[in-house]
Amino acid sequence: MTEGDLPAIMAIERATFPYDAWSEGMMRGELAEQPRTRHYVVALVDEVIVGYAGMAAAADQADVQTIAVLQAHQGTGVGGAMLAELLREARRRCAREIFLEVRDDNPRARGVYEHFGFEEIGIRRRYYDDGTDAIMMRKKLDG
Ligand SMILES: CC(C)(COP(=O)(O)OP(=O)(O)OC[C@H]1O[C@@H](n2cnc3c(N)ncnc32)[C@H](O)[C@@H]1OP(=O)(O)O)[C@@H](O)C(=O)NCCC(=O)NCCS
């Protein structure tokens, strides 16, 4: 992902996360850290951006920062392809484990993460602004 992608990215961000979308400034801040500690990708269908995902990596740990797919393209393999790329990049950077947080009320994303081998390791009570808990998940990458 580059700065030129931001208009498309922010449209997807606001449509996907209407109550807690990142600001464009936050997204720019993430891109400014590429490639040092961040790796952001976009997914294209017929040359149009339909999704994006980003990872942070430092020392031997990584975090999935965000992932979103336009609603019309969800369930078609786009998110899985991006998640697989983030896991590859985390391994390339010698991360031994990768973490993420997901809303307790997002069973679809939790199912996708479990499908990719993430395991629940804890709960952050009332982590989100509306009082919803965050489920913390981890996948070990070594071996
Ligand atoms: C979560 C999200 C990124 C997943 O992307 P997607 O494109 O819909 O997912 P895919 O179709 O690529 O599915 C990925 C894999 O998970 C599997 N999967 C999908 N839903 C699943 C579920 N509920 N339980 C278990 N596995 C599931 C799929 O079968 C697929 O596996 P395969 O590649 O082996 O066939 C997407 O649905 C999305 O943007 N949702 C809204 C935003 C969001 O919730 N983001 C995450 C915030 S933490």
Automatic annotation (TrEMBL):
Name of encoding gene: rimI
Provide the coiled-coil residue spans.
Answer: none
Which keywords has UniProt assigned to this entry? Answer: Acyltransferase, Cytoplasm, Ribonucleoprotein, Ribosomal protein, Transferase
| NCBIfam families found in the cross-reference section | rimI
Q: What is this protein called?
A: [Ribosomal protein bS18]-alanine N-acetyltransferase
What EC class does the entry list?
transferase
Documented EC number(s)? 2.3.1.266
Q: Which InterPro entries match?
A: AcTrfase_RimI/Ard1, Acyl_CoA_acyltransferase, Bact_Acetyltransf, GNAT_dom
Species classification: Bacteria, Bacillati, Actinomycetota, Actinomycetes, Streptosporangiales
Protein's organism: Nonomuraea montanisoli
GO MF terms listed in the record are: protein-N-terminal-alanine acetyltransferase activity
